[in-house]
Amino acid sequence: MKHITFILAIVFLSIGYAANAQTEAQKVEICSGTAGPDASYLKDFVVDLPAAQGDEKAPTAKYSLILQKDTKYRITICTDDDSPGKGYVQLLDTNSLLGSSFNPQTGKEYKGFDFDCQKSSVYHIFIQFQEGKAGKSIVILSFIKKL
């Protein structure tokens, strides 16, 4: 009897885990669809960050990637509906900010932005949540066209 109970528990846990994994995949698919009909999915970044504690800096997810010269890319962000914080994404090279989905001076949020890559190089994506709140977001990198 103990074996049957144990096996049933494993089966139910496995089903629950598979449902969560499918939900995340569905969210990625939905978010990639918001990039527009001219966008071709390249990569996703799924982020779940804790809230900043006290005076510490807001937690940041950082990713490095290589982008190709003479290519137009689109970076799109989708924040989960139940996320306490609103996510934003920034693209940087080694020296400067190249694009952002949030303007802190005006408080204006954007669904994403396009980037015309002028140099094949390593670029960095930073994902944070406004006011250092906790949050869950998906960022999609899409190919738009060769320039």
Key features of this structure:
four-stranded antiparallel beta sheet, alpha+beta, 147 residues, single chain, globular, 1 helix, 10 strands, Jelly Rolls, 22% helix
User: What's the architecture in CATH terms?
Assistant: Sandwich
Report the portion of residues in β strands: over 45%
Global outline: globular
Largest sheet: 4 strands, antiparallel
* C-alpha Rg (nearest Å): 19 Å
Series of secondary-structure elements, N-terminal to C-terminal? HEEEEEEEEEE
Number of strands: 10
Structural notes for this entry:
The chain has 147 residues and is an alpha+beta fold. The protein has one domain (2-146): Jelly Rolls (Sandwich). It is 22% helix and 46% strand. It has a four-stranded antiparallel beta sheet, covered by helices on one side. A hairpin with a 4-residue loop joins strand 4 (87-92) and strand 5 (97-100). It is globular, with a radius of gyration of 19 Å. The model is unreliable at 5-19 (pLDDT under 50).
Note the topology.
Layout: H1 2-33, E1 40-49, E2 61-67, E3 71-79, E4 87-92, E5 97-100, E6 102-103, E7 108-109, E8 112-117, E9 121-129, E10 135-146
Antiparallel strand pairs: 1-10, 2-9, 3-8, 3-10, 4-5, 4-9, 6-7
